[in-house]
Competence protein ComFB
Amino acid sequence: MVINAMERIMKDLLDEYKNRLQLSCTCDECLDDILALTLNKTHPRYVTDSDKIMYVKAEFVDKQNMTSLFVKLAECAKIVSDKPTCKMTTKGE
Amino acid sequence: MVINAMERIMKDLLDEYKNRLQLSCTCDECLDDILALTLNKTHPRYVTDSDKIMYVKAEFVDKQNMTSLFVKLAECAKIVSDKPTCKMTTKGE
């Protein structure tokens, strides 16, 4: 089993800040779109055991590192919010 | 749900070629180490649905793209094979 620790870290970050990102849609589909887009722009950090995620997480206690992650997340949230593709927002088109 | 399509593609590639990579150990721990190391050196391609993995896979029908993946895999296989850290190879130390 291999896990990208950034997946967990970014998901936690999105869950924490989704209400402050001024998202036009907060359905699961849009949140997944934001997450996938952000992770594609983030260097992967694969570990072989979920216990090891905390070692990667520890690096992001540093405020500058965490801020750069947050900037990526906010940029991707804007891209998805500007043009959401979920069923809820496209059903009227 | 988000999935890194490269995870599946690289795992399939490793399964196909593991017998030809002259690995010093082929236990699950070492194979995971190779996979994690390779994925950390590979640009992630996250999709929001496992059905979409095939679109990413289609890009690697191109021989040059597939070869560059294989080169990464072989390099990481050598790193792990030179210094395996699994229980089986370290229990005598």
